[in-house]
Q: What sequence folds into this?
């Protein structure tokens, strides 16, 4: 489940005007540092008012995740004064994007310990984030998180084909999606928008299909990253969410379901 960084990737990022110049420079510097074997545990990349961090062990994956959320802006919307629920935050790249684009509050949920440690470091620079080390599904409790060799593959219920990539198991808290949405509505308090981004590695089906539609009443926009190994598809998720008054709208990426009120 690795991810290599090619020369083309490096040059594309350097020339990509969707990223601030200093962000492009930092990405290239990290790439070159690694090529010279001058490695470090984390590589800081300036973005907005602070830095995000890419781990050396998962550099290609982290870099691709950062580009997906920030350069490609696959979750682009109006974040000014918004409350944002980042469910499956990984290392905080989307959260940094939302905060840099005006979000008032970010609540980030991430269950895996190594990812969460990097998320904490990132959040300390941006301020105004609340971090929850937990997975999100339909029902609360505890569950085994299957930890994969690639930092974006950790899952509560991975497909059998992921077994060759598994490197460990972590017992994690699971919070109910309905409770997460209720907290978001409370934080919003009638001011600004409530935006939800959900990327939970196949658990989107149980989380959304088994959560009452009424729980989504206070949500203005939803981005759901769908996965080919999940037990449902985007159409089923959209149908469920539409029963709460949300409507499917065009998405910037085919794997991201976008719903808007």
A:
């Amino acid at each position: 489940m690795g991810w290599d960084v090619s020369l083309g990737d490096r040059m594309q990022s350097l020339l990509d005007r969707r990223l601030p110049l200093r962000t492009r420079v930092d990405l290239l510097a990290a790439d070159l540092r690694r090529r010279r074997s001058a490695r470090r545990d984390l590589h800081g990349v300036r973005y907005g008012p602070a830095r995000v961090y890419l781990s050396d062990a998962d550099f290609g994956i982290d870099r691709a995740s950062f580009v997906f959320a920030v350069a490609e802006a696959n979750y682009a919307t109006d974040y000014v004064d918004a409350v944002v629920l980042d469910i499956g935050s990984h290392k905080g790249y989307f959260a940094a994007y939302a905060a840099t684009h005006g979000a008032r509050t970010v609540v980030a949920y991430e269950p895996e310990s190594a990812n969460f440690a990097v998320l904490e470091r990132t959040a300390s620079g941006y301020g105004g984030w609340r971090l929850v080390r937990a997975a999100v599904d339909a029902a609360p409790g505890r569950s085994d998180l299957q930890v994969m060799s690639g930092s974006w593959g950790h899952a509560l219920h991975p497909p059998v084909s992921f077994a060759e990539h598994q490197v460990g198991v972590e017992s994690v808290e699971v919070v109910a999606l309905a409770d997460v949405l209720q907290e978001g509505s409370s934080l919003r308090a009638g001011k600004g928008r409530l935006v939800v981004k959900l990327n939970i590695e196949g658990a989107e089906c149980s989380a959304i299909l088994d959560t009452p539609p009424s729980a989504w009443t206070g949500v203005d926009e939803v981005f759901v990253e769908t996965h080919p190994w999940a037990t449902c598809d985007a159409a089923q998720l959209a149908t469920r969410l539409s029963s709460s008054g949300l409507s499917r709208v065009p998405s910037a990426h085919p794997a991201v379901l976008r719903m808007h009120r």
User: Anything to note?
Assistant: The chain is about 35% helix and 25% strand.
